[in-house]
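Deliverable D5.2: sample structural annotation.
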Amino acid sequence: MSTTRRRAALIATVLTTALFINACHRSQDMDSGPGAGTQPPVPVDVANPLVMEIVEWDEFTGRFEADKYVELRARVSGYLDAIHFRDGQIVEKGDLLFTIDPRPFEAQSSRAEAEARRVQTQLGNIVLELRRGERLLESNAISQEAVEERQSAKAAAEAQLEAARASIRSAELDLEFTRISSPIRGRISDRKVDVGNLISGGSSESTLLATIVSLDPIHFVFDASEADYLRYGRLGLAGKRPSSREVANPVEIRLMDEDGWLHKGRMDFVDNVLDPRTGTMRARAVLDNPDSFLTPGVFGRVRVPGSGRYEAVLIPDSAILYDQSNKIVYKVDDAGTVSAQRIVTGPMSHGLRVVREGLSREDRIIVNGLQRARPTGMVTPNPVGIHADGDNAAAGR
């Protein structure tokens, strides 16, 4: 390297060192100046927890079931003559649905009526003979035995007449059974048999014609765990929550594509035995379905009261920090100093988180600006409010 190049490199090194030393001196001068080492308090939104009476709700998955389910089967055998509905339509109670060829049953009814008239005529003749014999008996023109025989013949004819009348009623019933009507109001399935087929009726192997399910009201069936069942039982014994076996506790249901609990109902049944295979208790709610929108077989979520009414401490979920398994909120005292407070939380209610332990209504916690605050640090608190139904401070930032 030439002398000129070495001299240029030395000058550059000296200049760099001088600039670094000058920067250090400036930094020291700033650190030693007035207000050194202090940060201005950061602004944050603080609020007192919302305290209000609530009822905790437990959620379960279940499905809708029809209040009534009917299988339409023929009660007499014969050829299917007509179908009087459209597949899948809503049918009213008493609507005519199927007709079996009535002609054989009309003929049977006519025979039964003719037989009854014959027996009636025979009975009339026997009654006349009996009256004549009783008059002859008074003049000893006929024996007592002959009169008694005529009395016996009259009793037998009366019995035959009753049997003939019973045959008429049976024939009329069979004729009536050729017209199959809906026993309930509901939605009918598709036809299982077409016109012209021979229908078997009157036995356990009778032909299935269609099914009908009622839609209003409709049931929602779900299973609760053994732990839930025991907890509800103990709440009932303590008088904090009435048993659904005795009181129609309210329920709310939402479908899989719904965000809110739009469907309101009430409990109407709890099973009498815990299923040993699944360790669950079957329960049922009932709700109105005037527009027939809810359909048997559809799944949904139901929530039922999981506690008695009590005064709860509520905060926004966004005000909670998570440190491994611990849940923490930042409290702010009157001097504006931040401190970390460990809490124990419960379920959501009215869009807010229930705090079981760790907070009281007098505490002030940070609800907005958590990222700017640090424990033992100073903040400038801006008081805000916490509101139920999700309209909380975090949402109104």
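Annotation notes: The first helix runs from residue 3 to 31. The domain at 57-67+216-305 is CATH 2.40.30.170 (Elongation Factor Tu (Ef-tu); domain 3).
The annotation will be released with the project's public dataset once the embargo ends.
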